[in-house]
C-alpha cells in the first residue's frame, strides 16, 4: 500500500474513526442533552417552583400577621389586599406544582395541599372579620386555634413537597452526572485508543464537551457543599452544551433569588415576632421553653433568662397557685407534648388561664395565659404555644369601675329613703350590732340563748335593710346571719369562735358605717333631718297650733265652760306632742310591701289601717317598726295566696291586710289580720314533729299548736329564702314585745277546730302609756290614705 493509499487509508480510517467517534459523540451529546434538559427544564424548574411555593406561603403568613398587627383601618385594608394577592399567587403556585408533578407522591402532596388550602383561607378570613369588627381577642384566638393549625399543616405538606422535589432533582442530577461520567469515560478510552490519529479531534471534543460538563459538574458539587448560589459556569460557546450551561446558570440565579427572598421573608417574620406586643413562647418535650420567643416576653417576665428553662420555674413560681394545681398543670403539659392532639382537648381545662405573679422587683402582675397546640404529622402535638398577656392594669381598671358602680348603686339605694328614716335605720342597726358585740364579749363560750338573741338581732337588721331596699348591705348582713344560723342548729357544723364572730361583726358594722359615710359625705345628709331629734323637738300639726292659739285669743274668760273647753284643747294638743300616727311610723315597711309581693310572685296587697284616733309615742316607734316589719312580711309570704290561686277560690286577685289599733282597759291593742288561707296548723305540727319539738303521737289543741311558731328557730317554709325560712320572725317579734312589757297572741276567727288551715289574727298588747287618744274614731283608711304628706311644726 503506497503512501498515498496509506494516507488515504489512514485518512479513511481516521475519517471512519472520526465518523464513528463523532457519531457516538453526537449520539451521546443528544442523549446527554435530553438528560440535561430533563434536569434544567424539568426537575430543576420543578424544584425552583417548590421554592416559589414556599415563598408564596410565606407571603400569606406575612399578610396574615399584618392583619393581626394592623393598628387602624387603612393598614388593615392594605393587609387584606396583600392577603388577596398572596392567596392568588399561592393557588397559582399549587396549580403549577400539580402540572409539574413528576410522580404519584408529588401529585398526592399537591392534592393534600389543595384540600387544606380552602380551610386555611377560611380561618384567615374569619380572623380578618374579627379584626375588622374590632374583636382583637377573638381574632387572636381564631388565629391561634384555626389559622395556626392549618398553617402548620400546609407548611408541613409544602415542606414535604419541596423535599420530594429536591430529591427528584437530586436524582435527576445524579443520573445526569452518571450519564456524563459514562460519556466522559467512553470518550476518554476511545480518545486514548485513537490519540495519535484523533488527537486533534479528541482535543476539540474535550474542549467542546468534556471541559464544560466537568466545570458544570464541579460547580454543582461546590454549590451543594457551600450553598453559595452566586457561583456560575463560564460559557465558551453557544452550542448545545453551552445552552445547557446557560440553563444551569439561569437555574442557579433563580435559586439565589428565591433563597434571598425566602431569607428576607423569614427575617421579616422574626422581626415581627420580636416587636409584637405580646409574650409568645413555645414548649418542647420536657416542658422547656424553645429558644425562639417574642422579645416582649422578657419585658413581661422581667428577665432575659427564658430559653431552655422549665416553664414551672419560669412562669409559675411566686404565684397564688397551690401545689396541687401546679402538679396538674405539669401533668397536663406532659400528657400533651408528643401525644395525640385529642389529649390537648381532654387536658386543656387543667392549663390555667390566669395567674397572679410576684415579680423580682416586688410588683404583682396579673397575667393572662392562652394555650394552643402545634400539631405535626400524624396529628401529634409537637409543641405547645403559650401567649402571655399582662392584664394587671386592665384588671385594676375593671375593679375600680366595679367599685364605682357599687358606690353609685349604694347612693341610689340611700336616695330612695328619706333622711329621717335612713338616720333611724342606721341608729337602730348600730344599736343591734352593739348589743351583739356586748353579748359576744360577755359570753366567750356562747350558749343557745345567746346565739338565738344574736340571730334575732342580725335578722332584724337584715329585714330593716331589705325593707328600705339597701341590697348591698343586706348581702353583707346575710353572711353574718348565716354564721349564727349554723351555730344554732342542734348539731352545729362550726364551733363558737369569739375572735371570728367579732371580726365578722366588725365587717357588718363597717358596711353600715360605709352607708352612713356615703349619706353624710357624698350626699350631705348629715343627721336625722328635719323631723329628727324628737328628744328636743316635738312634732304637731301647724293647723292645730293655729286653731288652739285662736281659741285662746277669743276665749271669754268670764265663761267657765269656755275656759274648761279651751283647757281641754290645750291639754290634748300638748298631750299629743312627741307622737306619730301608726301609718307614719310604719310608712317605710308599708312602702316595701309592693316590691316584696312582686318578688314572691303575688299581687300587690291592699293594706287598711284603722287607727281609731290613736297616735303612738315616739319611744315605741322603733319597736313597732321591728315588730310589724316581721308580721307584715309574714302575712304576704305565708298568709296571702298567689293571684291565680285566689281567683280560683273566688277571692279578689289582690289580698287584703287589716291593721287595727284600740286603746281600752289600760292597754294599747294592735290587731293584724289578712284574708289569706289562714294559719297552717297541719304544716306547723309536721314541722314540730320533724324538729323534735313534740312527739308524733302528742295530742295538742289548735291553740297549743299555734304557740309553736314562737319557738326559736321554728319555720314552716319549704326552703330557705331571703324573705323567710330561717325561723326567726315570730321569735323576734315576741322578744321585741316582751322587752316593752307587752304580750303577743294568736286568736282564731273561725270554729273549724282541727282543720289544717284556720283563719286567725295576731294581737299585740302594750301598756297604754305608749299611745294617746286625740280624736274620735275615724273610718278605716288604706295605707296611702293613712299617711299623706302633711305640714308639721
Describe the protein's topology:
Elements (H helix, E strand, L loop, with lengths): L2 H67 L3 H28 L3 H29 L3 H58 L1 H32 L13 H36 L3 E6 L3 E2 L6 H6 L9 H6 L6 H14 L4 H7 L6 E5 L5 E12 L5 E10 L1 H24 L3 H24 L5 H20 L3 H17 L10 H25 L19 H13 L5 H16 L3 E3 H4 L1 H13 L6 E5 L3 E4 L3 H19 L3 H6 L7 E9 L2 E8 L4 E2 H10 L11 H6 L21 H11 L3 E6 L8 E2 L1 E8 L3 E3 L7 E2 H4 L7
Parallel strand pairs: 7-9
Antiparallel strand pairs: 1-2, 1-5, 3-4, 4-5, 6-8, 7-16, 8-15, 9-10, 10-14, 11-13, 12-14
Helix pairs in contact: 1-2, 1-4, 1-5, 1-6, 2-3, 3-4, 4-5, 5-6, 9-10, 11-15, 12-13, 12-15, 13-14, 14-15, 16-17, 19-20, 20-24
Describe this entry's structure for a reader.
A 6-stranded mixed beta sheet has the order 12-14-10-9-7-16. Strands 2-1-5-4-3 form a 5-stranded antiparallel beta sheet. It contains 25 helices and 16 strands. Helix 5 (195-226) runs parallel beside helix 6 (240-275). The model is unreliable at 1-10, 532-538 and 789-793 (pLDDT under 50). It is of the alpha+beta class and 793 residues long. The chain is rod-shaped. It folds into 4 domains: 3-273, no CATH class; 276-390, Beta-Lactamase; 400-522, Four Helix Bundle (Hemerythrin (Met), subunit A) (Up-down Bundle); 580-786, Histidine kinase-like ATPase, C-terminal domain (Heat Shock Protein 90), CATH 3.30.565. 31% of the residues are buried.
